[in-house]
Write a structure and sequence with these properties.
single chain, about 400 residues, alpha/beta, 10-stranded mixed β-sheet, 3-stranded antiparallel β-sheet, 13 helices, 17 strands
Length: about 400
């Protein structure tokens, strides 16, 4: 449903600027707890509170000691306009569902940051007229939820739009000025060289506007990466980019650098295991980096054959794990040891024996079984020469590893 709240213009934003501290106090009155340390906001993993089978934040907190969550994503309305929504559809002004999640987290001594942007969707920087109106839209989010932290996730396709990035960076600077103590992270795509051309242009825009967030984080996945060594190499190269762009020395650049990983199987089929996360965590802490986070808690659990079958999923990791294994690395980064009395995980089932190998010339009818690619498959209907798993809607049901 379209919201009736219009985008605030530059004049309104100036008024907001003069009352920036008041805005934050009003936000605190709406239910925010005392701010956590910046280290916790820097360690907050991403959580989609409305999509991808949201896990219980309270259960994760109890099992791991995690205190901070990065809620995703705030976008422009799908139909256009300059007012904040969750995922392009749920107006922030009318929200009660996300507020309930936040209340639960805060009642247990935790807190949240909100992430704006992400991959896909229409961003407020694209639809708002300028930086001031973009900032005014985001201020609605800060005030409603009493936020102490916010994340600008600037990536495709928005970061290819020069005007949109100018609006986003300008808005981030305004919010930083109007909300004293606000923790601001900027997240963008990672490459083997650190970040690509558009990521470098974003950094130059920040430099030109005189804006310095708590950190610039890269996402070293979905770009031909292969394990932790390739990720730490990208972080080293990104450090050099920060040095050359802002004139920082190496230590200052690391103090403004962050890592945002993807747990398990990435969108392009890369795999990042718990051992990879530990290696990157060791790199981040030894270099005094400012941020260590990942996408996402919705995926921080093991897949079953029924819900995955070796493909990337939004609700599980596609690697062998206990629930919330990856969240524990965020807890370590924050400097807190996870509880020792975590629930006993369900053991991974032992793979069954493989059926007769699938043949491209054989005819299979409903309930016939065959093995292919280390998995057993069952036919849904008559089929011949259709490779198991080649299509999500194909004739084969994955029965799991064998």
């Amino acid at each position: 449903m379209r919201t009736l709240r219009a985008c605030l213009g530059a004049a309104a934003a100036v008024t907001l600027a003069a009352a920036g501290t008041t805005a934050l106090v009003a936000g605190n009155a709406s239910g925010a707890t005392t701010a956590l340390s910046n280290r916790w906001y820097a360690a907050a993993p991403y959580l989609m509170p409305l999509d991808n089978d949201p896990p219980s934040a309270a259960a994760i907190m109890d099992a791991t000691g995690l205190k901070a969550f990065q809620l995703a994503f705030v976008l422009a309305p799908n139909g256009g306009g300059c007012s904040p929504t969750w995922g392009g559809t749920a107006a922030v002004s009318a929200d009660t569902a996300v507020q309930s999640v936040i209340n639960t987290i805060r009642a247990k001594g935790g807190d949240v940051s909100v992430s704006i942007g992400g991959y896909g969707g229409t961003k407020l920087g694209q639809t708002c007229a300028d930086a001031a109106s973009t900032a005014a839209a985001y201020q609605q989010v800060i005030t409603k939820y009493g936020l102490h932290a916010i994340d600008f996730d600037l990536e495709e396709p928005e970061y290819e739009n020069t005007a949109a990035i100018r609006n986003e960076i300008g808005a981030a600077k305004i919010l930083q000025q109007n909300n004293p103590g606000l923790y601001v992270s900027v997240t963008t795509a990672g490459t083997a060289d650190g970040t690509g051309w558009f990521g470098k242009q974003m950094l130059l825009e920040a430099k030109s506007q005189g804006f310095t967030p708590n950190n610039f984080s890269i996402m070293p996945f979905d770009g031909g990466f292969n394990g932790a060594a390739s990720q730490t190499g990208a972080l080293t190269n990104f450090n050099s980019i920060l040095q050359s762009t802002f004139g920082w020395d190496q230590a200052t650049a690391y103090a403004h650098e962050g890592f945002s990983g993807m747990n398990g199987r990435s969108d392009t089929g890369e795999y990042f295991t718990q051992a990879d996360f530990q290696t990157v965590l060791d790199y981040a802490t030894s270099h005094n980096m400012d941020r260590f986070t990942f996408w996402s808690l919705n995926r921080d659990r093991q897949c079953t054959p029924a819900d995955n079958g070796g493909r990337t999923s939004g609700t599980c990791s596609s690697v062998a794990q206990n629930s919330w294994d990856f969240a524990k690395y965020s807890v370590k980064f924050a400097g807190v040891t996870p509880p020792t009395t975590t629930p006993t995980p369900t053991p991974t089932p032992t793979p069954t024996s493989c059926k007769t190998a699938w043949s491209s010339t054989a005819v299979y009818v409903k309930d016939d079984e065959a093995s292919y690619g280390g998995h057993n498959w069952k036919a849904k209907w008559w089929t011949q020469n259709e490779v198991p798993g080649a299509s999500q809607w194909g004739p084969w049901t994955d029965e799991g590893a064998c």
